[in-house]
Task: structure prediction
Amino acid sequence: MDSVINAAKEKMSKTISALNSEYNSIRAGRASAAVLDPIRVDYWGVPTPINQMAAVSVAEARILVIQPWDKSALKLIEKAIQASDLGINPQNDGSVIRLTFPPLTEERRKQLTKDVKAQAENSKIAIRNIRRDAIEKLKAMKKASEITEDDLDDAEKRVQKVTDDFIKQVDGVAAKKEEEIMAI
Result:
């Protein structure tokens, strides 16, 4: 019974971690190396993350500097950034690439806020699905006479409490990200 609840907690924690990494990749007017995480560069025939082939640093609040360890990869990185949906044109000076993040327009902020809410809702759905699966496992244990009816009721209440706690975490993370987007 506890193993089912602990497995559900672990899966819900992973959902929160996935949401946080999604939010880190949203560019909110400030330079952040996390926006480059989804971009892969075709380096010697292998899709490679930029942070594994270059030093990525924040030069100023809205400028990201990418300095590849192998200068021959400069054009490849530039090409991968242009092909991505980042929406920023890289500036290549021969030794480093600079990405200048424009300030967000009010319309873009509203769109990003909608995206944040949609991702939060998807995370809540995933958490509820984990709850459903855990309760189904508990009911199967009851049917197999591994636990009693009282144990099942107690376990369902515990699973619901865990679910409520994680949904509050999702709401908190989403509210923080929305605030960050609107404050800029």
